Amino acid sequence: MLPSNQPKPKNNTEIAVEKLRGLIFSGELPAGSNHLETELAVRLGMSRTPVREAALMLEAQGLLEVRARKGVRILPVSVQDMEEIYDVLTALESMAAGQAANAGLDHSALAGLEAAIADMETALDQGNREDWAEADDRFHTELVRLSGNSRMIAIVALMADQVRRARAITLYLRPLPVKSNEDHRQVLDAISAGDAETARDIHKAHRDAAKSTLVALLKQNRLHML
Amino acid sequence: MLPSNQPKPKNNTEIAVEKLRGLIFSGELPAGSNHLETELAVRLGMSRTPVREAALMLEAQGLLEVRARKGVRILPVSVQDMEEIYDVLTALESMAAGQAANAGLDHSALAGLEAAIADMETALDQGNREDWAEADDRFHTELVRLSGNSRMIAIVALMADQVRRARAITLYLRPLPVKSNEDHRQVLDAISAGDAETARDIHKAHRDAAKSTLVALLKQNRLHML
DNA sequence: CTCTGGATTTATGTATACGTTAATGTATAC
DNA sequence: GTATACATTAACGTATACATAAATCCAGAG
User: Is the pLDDT of residue B7 over 80?
Assistant: First the structure.
C-alpha cells in the first residue's frame, strides 16, 4: 500500500477533540472561560454526545474541567503549573538524552536533531522567534522520539500542550535564546559521543535554566495565570 | 466542618470507572479479553452511556482500548511495555528523590518513607511478600508525593496501575528483595543528608536493577504478555 | 470444494428525550 | 433592609432510539 495521506475517517468525537484543542490553543476559548455543552455542540455542528465525550477526554489530558451545571472550564496555567510541567519534562527528556547516548545511534538517526539545531540557529540569526520556537519544540520532541518509549512520547506531548499558550506569550518577552542553542549543540555532541551522563546532565541543566528564566519572566510581568 | 467520611455522591460514570478498574485488577476481565458495551452495562447495572464514558476514560489511562464493533479490549502488558513503564518511573522518581533531598525536609516529613522501609523490613523478615509489595509501593508513592508535583504524582499512579497485574504475578517468582531494602534505606539517608545527587543516582540504579530483574524473570518464564 | 458477492445481523456512533439537581430569583417575614 | 424559604429554571447525567458500518453468513458460480 502506498503511504496513504488520506485523512482516515474519524468519528465525531475525535473531530470534536481536535476542534476543541484548536479553539483552546488559538485562544478562541480563553483560559478560565466556561462553556455549556449545548453551546459547544452547536458551535461544532454536532450533538452533545460526541462533544461531551471529547470534553471528558480533554479533561483527562488536563486541558479543561467538566463541572456539573457549569459547563466546561478551560483550565488556566499558573506559574506553579509551569514549574510542575517543566520538572516532568526535565526528568523525562534527560533520561531520553541519556538513552539516546547509550543507544549508539549513527549519524543518520541523529539527522532530526541536527536539522532542528540548524533551524534554530538560522532562526536566531534572522531574529525570527516563531521559527526558533518551532525548531526548539522539534528538537525536544525528536529527542524523546529517539527513546522509542511510546509512553514517554505521549506524556511529553501532553505536557508540551499544556504550556503551549504560556510559551507563545513569553516568546517575545524573553531575551534571545542564544545560550539555549549552545546547550542543544552540547547535548547532541554528548549523544554522538555516547556519553550518557553528560547528555543527561547538560540537558537537565538546560531545562532547569529554561524553567528559571520562564518563571522569573512570568513573575516580573505579573502573569500568574495564562 | 468535621472531616466528612461520607462517601461523596458520585455519578455513574465515576462508579463505572471504579468498578471496571476493580474488575480489571482482579482479573475478572482478563488481559486480552473483549467485552461489548451492552454486556458491561448490564453487568454494572446501568445504561451504555456512563459505561461508554468510563471506557473512554480508562482508554486514556492506558488500561483498555475501545474499538468500533469489537467492544472494549483489556490491554495486555508486554515485556516491552514493562520496560517503557519502568523507565518513566525511574526518570520521575529519581527526580523526586533529588528534589526531596534539596527540600530540606525535617524528620517528621520523612516519617512516611521511614515507616514504609520499616514495614518492608518486617515483611521481609517474616517472608511475607504481599506485605512487602504493599510497603514497597507505599515507599515509591510517598517519595513522589514529597515532590508536591501533582502531575508527577498522577503519572506515577497511572504507570503503577499498568504494571500492577504483572507485579502480582512475578511477586512469587523473584528472589527475596533483600538488596532492594538496602537501596531504599540509602535513598532515604541521602534525602535526609540533603544530598540530591546521591539520592537521584541511587534511586535510578535501584529502579534500573529492578527493571532488569523483572524483565529477565518474565523472559525466563516465557511471560511475554500479562 | 473453494471463492466471491451480496444479504443479514449486530454493535457501535450519534441524536434526542427526560429526569435530577443545583443555581437563581422572588416573595415574605422579621 | 436583610435574611430565609420556596418556586422556577436551566444544565447536566442518563437512558434510549435510531442510523451506520463492519463482520458474518449463505448462496451460487467456478
Answer: no
